[in-house]
Design brief:
Chain lengths: 180, 185
């Protein structure tokens, strides 16, 4: 009984987290990473930064929208029910908004505020993305990890046309060989 | 040069919507939106390039993950709410099952040191990728010192002072949107 209560309370907390974050989600889900990191790693200690970063990487390497790492966080914490909870909670609000947007498309399209707001929010959301990356580097425990990150970053910048999956795959091979 | 073939005048059925977004879901590696364009515009010709871009612009401005918004929007546009539901399920159903299976597989083999460190290598590179993506998005700020200041301030507030995203958006965003309104951004 106690366990069941605890399980349902974490499901409710995750649902609240993602329902709230989904409303703030403008410009991708990566700007949301700092808040997710706080919830799963810093406040609740439900996973380590390495596990957290691992799920983001796994979702990037797998087919489908990259946001599925959200489902992996839920799965880690509470199994299949957790996965449905987190993905459902981040999708529900946007689902309604997108339907409304398709109904009021003409009005939204002509609204000059759309461009103004998006242009204004861009520096803030990019700043939040950078914050997310900074938090993820908390899982780099040695100079080797930092070196791999630096080489990977340089490669991404130098080869913008290369599909990211090749380098992510290379990272897996290098990691396995060097025993990080 | 993209060919502009005539656009289908018949609205796609529920089944066609499901199959189209299912295809987007399972073929999209590292970013689903380019695939959505390919399937909806180039292959199925349900929308022309211009219409797709207009929809995308609106979907980026409403809250939520962009690719989900776009799939739901397109489903709703052609077949109402039930169209939105099948597009959503088509897009996410299979990839959802796949990531859960991959994660389960990883945990089943995570006793093996090479598997664990392979995962670590992968997440280091994925982090570098996110960083590269952020820098790319920050590129237009080069000639706008105010944008750089706002960007760094938001990053520091979030990463070092652990300010909740809602407050960062509220405080930083209202300043930024005001500046943008006055043509300073």
């Amino acid at each position: 009984m106690g366990q069941a209560l605890k399980d349902s309370s974490i499901l409710i907390d995750m649902a609240m987290l993602y329902a709230t974050l989904s409303l703030l989600c403008i410009g991708g889900t990566i700007p949301l990473v700092p808040d997710m990191h706080r919830f799963f790693v810093d406040s609740r200690g439900l996973m380590t930064t390495s596990e957290f970063a691992g799920y983001i990487a796994l979702a990037q390497a797998a087919p489908g929208p990259n946001i599925l790492y959200v489902a992996l966080f839920g799965y880690h914490v509470a199994g299949i029910a957790g996965a449905f909870t987190t993905l459902g909670a981040i999708s529900a609000g946007p689902f309604v908004f997108a339907i409304l947007a398709s109904k009021f498309f003409a009005r939204l399209q002509d609204n000059p505020w759309r461009e103004i707001v998006l242009r204004g929010l861009a520096p803030i959301t990019v700043g939040l993305m950078l914050a997310g990356c900074t938090l993820l580097t908390g899982g780099f425990h040695d100079a080797l990890a930092w070196s791999i990150a630096a080489i990977a970053l340089a490669s991404f910048m130098a080869l913008p046309k290369l599909h990211p999956l090749w380098l992510i795959g290379a990272g897996a091979v290098v990691g396995a060989l060097l025993s990080l | 040069m993209r060919h502009h073939s005539p656009i289908n005048s018949r609205a796609p059925t529920h089944r066609e919507l499901f199959v189209a977004f299912f295809t987007v879901g399972i073929s999209a590696f590292g970013g689903a939106l380019p695939w959505a364009r390919r399937v909806v515009v180039d292959d199925r010709k349900w929308l022309d390039d211009k219409a797709f871009t207009e929809i995308l612009t609106v979907c980026q401005a409403i809250p939520g993950p962009n690719v989900i918004n776009t799939a739901v929007f397109i489903g709703a546009k052609f077949r109402g709410i039930s169209g939105a539901v099948v597009s959503f399920l088509g897009l996410l159903g299979a990839p959802f099952a796949i990531v859960l299976i991959l994660s389960q597989l990883y945990h089943a083999f995570s006793d093996i040191a090479a598997v664990r460190s392979g995962m670590k290598g992968m997440s280091i590179v994925a982090t570098a990728y996110l960083f590269a993506m952020s820098l790319k998005l920050a590129k237009p700020f080069q000639r706008k010192p105010i944008a750089v200041v706002l960007c760094i301030a938001a990053a520091i507030a979030s990463a070092y002072f652990h300010v909740h995203m809602g407050y960062v958006l509220l405080a930083g965003g209202s300043v930024a949107v005001a500046l943008s309104k006055w043509g300073k951004l």
